Amino acid sequence: IAKGQGKNAYSFFSGGMSQQARERLFLTNSLRGAVERDELVLNYQPRICMQSGTVVGAEALVRWQSPEHGLILPTRFIGLAEETGMIEPIGEWVLKTACRQMAQWQARYGRPGFISVNLSPRQFNQKKLADRIAALIEETGLEPTMLELEITESMVMGDPEKAQETLSRLARLGVRVSLDDFGTGYSSLSHLRQFPLQHLKIDKSFISDLPGDADAEAVTRAILGLASSLRLGCTAEGVETPAQRDFLAQEGCEAWQGYLFSKPVLPEALAEMLWN
Ligand code: C2E
Ligand code: MG
Ligand code: MG
Ligand code: MG
């Protein structure tokens, strides 16, 4: 019976689970409680101003330091957390930790710099998102303009009216919002124009083919042109070589992130880069 249905069907009939299903079950079980057991860690990747070459802020990127499985990157557990609803406590922890960290830095160093936090679709759709952010700002004393939230195109295009409302509330708080992985999703230009957004982040899949790949160059130029016409800031993600950075500088890109400057690092290392 299993013949012709691939390996998974075979292992099903032989009583086993597919490798993928086993990993899912395994991760789901230990992810439950990872927040309470204090196993999550935030790393920070600096964002560099193209013109001055200085660090202007940093993106918070979550990692899971599991005693059983070692260090796990977000691509392996964020999707799962989103499906199972565990993203709610995880996302809350990330927001709280990043805001507290930045407020602490703000108090200690008193100099500007911002923190950007990735939101998941579920988080963005929470009715209480803007209230929660307002409460965090109040609680930590963080300057609202020092917080940036990263969302993706699909989160706002699914229900543009609802997104408009959420984005307006966030804008009234003074928090900035950027569109992450820009160019890979499906954006309506008329909505883009109307939404109170401040920033686009060019997806690293385009940057990795720069310079030289005509399509990647064209898409990059188009996004930079769009950002400029809509008066949005623009950051290139995943810059790994001087040639990529130079191409972006020449095309007028305002800021960049990438291994060329630094990988995501622990908070102490980021503070060194920002304020020393
Ligand atoms: P993202 O928000 O687009 O973050 C950029 C990813 O590119 C990060 O991977 C970063 O480490 C990686 N990166 C940065 N510079 C370079 C480079 O020069 N070359 C290459 N090859 N990669 C580079 P990471 O940390 O594994 O995160 C992957 C994704 O997981 C993020 O993509 C984001 O969508 C999601 N994520 C991370 N932290 C959180 C979080 O706290 N909450 C939510 N909802 N999602 C998160
Ligand atoms: Mg991001
Ligand atoms: Mg992303
Ligand atoms: Mg991205």
How would you describe what is shown here?
The protein is of the alpha/beta class. 49% of the residues lie in helices and 19% in strands. A hairpin with a 3-residue loop joins strand 2 (55-66) and strand 3. Helix 6 (129-140) runs parallel beside helix 8 (160-173). Residues 1-14 have low confidence and may be disordered. The structure holds ligand C2E and magnesium ion (3 copies).
Which properties best describe this structure?
single chain, 276 residues, alpha/beta, eight-stranded mixed beta barrel, binds ligand C2E, binds magnesium ion
Order of helices and strands: HHEEEHHEHHEHHEHEHHEHEH
Basic shape: globular
Helix content: 40-55%
Poorly predicted runs are 1-14
- Ligand kinds: ligand C2E, magnesium ion
Radius of gyration: 20 Å
Q: What is the β-strand count? A: 9
Strand order of the largest sheet: 1-2-4-5-6-7-8-9
Question: Approximately what portion of the residues adopt beta-strand conformation?
Answer: 15-25%
**Average pLDDT:** 91
The secondary structure category is: alpha/beta
Discrete helix count: 13
Distance between the termini: 66 Å
**Largest β sheet strand count, sense and barrel closure:** 8 strands, mixed, barrel
Concise summary:
With 276 residues, the protein is an alpha/beta fold.
Q: What's the layout of helices and strands?
A:
Layout: H1 6-13, H2 19-31, E1 40-49, E2 55-66, E3 70-72, H3 74-84, H4 87-109, E4 114-118, H5 121-125, H6 129-140, E5 147-152, H7 153-157, H8 160-173, E6 176-182, H9 189-194, E7 199-202, H10 204-207, H11 214-229, E8 233-236, H12 242-250, E9 255-256, H13 267-275
Parallel strand pairs: 2-4, 4-5, 5-6, 6-7, 7-8, 8-9
Antiparallel strand pairs: 1-2, 1-9, 2-3
The structure holds ligand C2E and magnesium ion (3 copies).
